[in-house]
Amino acid sequence: MRLILLGPPGSGKGTQAQRLVARYGIVQLSTGEMLRAAVAAQTPVGVKAQHIMAAGGLVPDEIVVGIISDRLDQPDAAKGFILDGFPRTVPQAEALDELLKKKRIKLDAVIELRVNESALLQRVETRVAEMRARGEDVRADDTPEVLTNRLASYRSQTEPLIHYYSERRKLLTVDGMMTIEAVTLEIDRILSAIGAVEEAKAAKKAGAKRTAKLAKKAGPGMVAKKTAKKAAKPAAGKTAKKAAKGTRTAKKTAKKAAKGSRKASKGAKKSARKALAGSRARAVGKTRKTAKKVTKKRAKA
User: Fold this and answer.
1) Annotated binding residues for ATP
2) At residue 149, does pLDDT exceed 50?
3) What pLDDT is stored for residue 59 in this prediction?
4) Which entry of 2, 19, 123, 150 is annotated as an active-site residue?
5) Hey, is 54 helix, strand or coil?
């Protein structure tokens, strides 16, 4: 998994990042820690950053991107990572996209922990009051005043990233006001869904590769035969249909002819009967006529 967690100070990004590291065996990449590690290792980018920080200046984006690039090349980042504290601005996000594109690394998701700022300030005020009531020291950066300034900085610089990643269909929003466990469960559900989609894509791609490999192994002759066979199937089907249709037509014609033959035969028989009856009637008439003549002759004699 390759992720970015977005959210204002106090939204719980650090807690959720630690849980994701433990669950997926990925690394959490903090820009601050990476800068210190690069300076300690005296890498070329780390040396540049050291000179700038020593002079009290802000480390430019290109140096930070260079440090991230070196860190992504380390073996433990191969399985996945969570970027913490970077990007903070749209230009940084664009520079990161270019870096990942060069390295052929796909960013899986940007998870935004959306919270209510008023509720966050109330949480800090309550925590500070409880710490003071117990006589504990309150950290200078853990006061409502500091949090108010950090929230204003987040809104002006980092919040535009929500629109940036939403346009690229990478943004997934989780209600950060839920309990820690509920937020963890929701993030797990989202990442499981992403994993299922990626597995399906990988399986489809693997199937296409196997098909291409088999086609290559079979050679053009075998491919041509298969293509011809596929082409022949529809043609054979059409020919068979036409032949069947012709057979049905021939049967109908034969049936009509047989019917006509029966009618003709019946007519011929009827004519023959009529002719025979007529012949008999004439014979009887002739016999009667001859008998009358004989009777007349006898009477005269």
Assistant:
1) 10-15, 134, 178
2) yes
3) 82
4) 150
5) helix
At 279, list the tokens: 């012949």
What pLDDT, on a 0 to 100 scale, did the predictor assign at position 162?
A: 94
Detail the residues annotated as belonging to a binding site. 10-15, 31, 36, 57-59, 85-88, 92, 134, 139, 150, 178
The answer to whether 11 and 112 have CB atoms below 8 angstroms apart is no
Say which of 2, 114, 123, 127 is annotated catalytic: 127
Known catalytic membership, residue 300: no
Buried b (16+ CB within 10 A) or exposed e, 61-74: bebbbbbbebbbee
Q: Please report, in range form, the residues annotated as the binding site for AMP.
A: 31, 36, 57-59, 85-88, 92, 139, 150
pLDDT digits (tens, 9 = 90+) for 44-82: 888 888 888 777 777 888 888 998 999 999 999 999 999
Contacts by residues 166-175 (CB-CB < 8 Å, ≥ 24 positions apart): 170/107, 170/109, 170/110, 171/109, 171/110, 171/112, 172/109, 172/110, 172/111, 172/112, 173/111, 173/112, 173/114, 174/111, 174/112, 174/113, 174/114, 175/114
Active-site residue flag, 139: yes
Res 220 pLDDT > 90: no
- Taking Cα atoms as reference points, which of 51, 27, 43, 46 lies closest to residue 35? 46
Catalytic hit among 2, 88, 123, 170: 88
Q: Distance between CA 147 and CA 17 in Å, rounded?
A: 21
Q: The pTM is what?
A: 0.62
Share of the chain above pLDDT 90, in %: 31
Helix, coil or strand: residue 82 = strand
Per the structure block, which two tokens stand in for 201? 């894509």
Q: Which of 103, 139, 241, 280 is catalytic?
A: 139
Is 13 labeled as catalytic in the residue annotation?
Answer: yes
| 155 has catalytic annotation | no
